[in-house]
């Protein structure tokens, strides 16, 4: 075995060490990112399992030009829900909610809906709705087909 064979082997060995030295941090970072994503997914699933709410009532009060729909729901789960991430559909149509439309236990400026608290949404509605649907940030939804009239 001559010097050229030993030199070539040394060069290949050094090349392999450099390649492994460059690849290891990339693989480690990818593994860390994957583990973080799995932990985030597990946290979201735990929040979903612990989230629940009940639709207490839905009432419609007719007015001269347009009526008022009031939807009241209670957070019956053990997870805090986001008020801005809660959506209302009236007869299948998305209704954009502003901060003035929602109240948590009577307070207008709340953005979280704690367990045991009541969320009240009041919006203008042209006609008596046949169906309403309330959807929370975790994808939980309740559909109500009996909207009471307020005299």
Outline the structure in words.
This protein is α+β, with helices and mostly antiparallel strands and 151 residues long. The chain has two domains: 1-50; 52-149, Sandwich (Immunoglobulin-like). It contains one helix and eleven strands, in the order H-E-E-E-E-E-E-E-E-E-E-E. The chain has one helix at 3-50, and strands at residues 53-61, 67-75, 81-82, 87-90, 93-95, 102-104, 112-113, 118-125, 132-135, 141-144, 148-149. The protein has a five-stranded mixed beta sheet, with no helix packed on it. The chain has a four-stranded antiparallel beta sheet with strand order 5-4-9-10, with no helix packed on it. A two-stranded antiparallel ribbon has the order 3-7. Strand 9 (132-135) and strand 10 (141-144) form a beta hairpin. It is rod-shaped and about 105 Å long. The termini are far apart. The model has no long low-confidence stretch (mean pLDDT 89). Pfam families: Flagellin_arch-type. GO terms for molecular function: structural molecule activity.
Layout: helices, strands, pairs:
Elements lengths: L2 H48 L2 E9 L5 E9 L5 E2 L4 E4 L2 E3 L6 E3 L7 E2 L4 E8 L6 E4 L5 E4 L3 E2 L2
Question: CA-to-CA gap between the ends?
Answer: 104 Å
Helix-strand string: HEEEEEEEEEEE
Outline: rod-shaped
What portion of residues belong to β-strands? 25-35%
Mean pLDDT metric: 89
What's the arrangement of strands in the largest beta sheet? 6-8-2-1-11
